[in-house]
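Subject: sequence -> structure tokens, single chain

Hey, anyone have a minute? Need the predicted structure for the following. Not urgent.
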Amino acid sequence: MAGHWGRFNVVSLVFGFAFLYLPIVLLVIYSFNESQLVTVWAGFSTRWYVALFSNQGLLDAAWVTVRVAFLSATTATVLGTLAALALTRYTRFRGRVLFSGMVFAPLVMPEVITGLSLLLLFVAMNLDRGFMTVTIAHITFSMCFVAVVVQSRLITFDRSLEEAALDLGATPVRAFFQVTLPVIMPAVLAGWMLAFTLSLDDLVIASFTSGPGATTLPMKIYSQVRLGVTPEINAVSTILIAVVSVGVIVASLVTKRAEVQRRRDEQMAARG
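Reply:
Had a minute. Here:
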């Protein structure tokens, strides 16, 4: 019986992973296809990557996407960390329930509603839609993800470390930057990476809040796919997958190294 269920679990995992990752593998393989038809293999070639770097429209969209993702992820990380600190350290203040609801609302709000509400806000404020409106929109919906990640780390944070720093004469701000922030840095980096990836991937909200000269890469890909998938789309998608994968691996390594260093410091402090 155990063996039967063991085989069942293995088969389920294989089919599950195949369902998730086989389309991605096929996309990467066919990005090196010689043929112009994406479903007909005609031999290995990198011609579509060369053609991609000659496609100014895709390059401009990619540059806009990277700038929006970097700026929005950085701002969302700062705001999300501050929100997590407020929710963790100040458990009783007037309007806390409303504040927490406003912070976490984008987690459960449909993207169409978020995009439409932001569009109406920008129109009411008479703001021209463009790079800044897309960035503000991405900060709005990605900040809550950072807050969730950082808050989960702050809940388990040992406050005695901060109290020791305060007893030694450090100001609250200095104690935060020299004691608290290094300890929660893996969570902060994970939140930044999550916000960056969500911004790279966003299509719906950007479609509502973008304007002339602020076309993101997902929007560009979607507009071209509607006319038919081309090998260049496979190539740019493969590059995007590689960038995100490298970023996730680097963030994981940095987080792991920081966690190991933190444990070593705690062990040394305990021995001392």
